[in-house]
């Protein structure tokens, strides 16, 4: 995304990066896969890590899909929180 500061994006940097990844819409599934892969790799904190923490997943779901599918995202996050508790 070529942000000036890693992990902190201005709105313009975010929009430019999303467009560069061609992930500005979830309707183009191949572009969304590229965006997901980039986001997933960004959240990894260790080189050999194969998963990200659940809190980051909740935030990514809300960030990426929440504006368009808020009811579904909210229900899914509630479901995940129930699973984590058990």
General description of the model:
This protein has helices spanning 11-20, 29-43, 54-65, 70-85. The longest helix has 16 residues, at 70-85. The mean pLDDT is 81. The chain folds into 2 domains: 1-47, no CATH class; 53-86. It is globular, with a radius of gyration of 14 Å. The relative contact order is 0.09. It has 4 helices and no strands. With 86 residues, it is mainly alpha-helical. Helix 3 (54-65) packs antiparallel against helix 4 (70-85).
The helix tally amounts to 4
**Model regions low in confidence, pLDDT < 50 over at least 5 residues:** none
Question: What share of the residues does DSSP label as strand, in percent?
Answer: under 5%
The main β sheet shows up as: none
The figure for the number of domains is 2
Mean pLDDT metric: 81
Distance between the termini: 37 Å
Structural class: mainly alpha
Given the C-alpha coordinates, what overall shape results? globular
Q: Strand-and-helix sequence, N→C?
A: HHHH
Say how many strands there are. Answer: 0
Rg, please? 14 Å
- Helical proportion, percent range: 55-70%
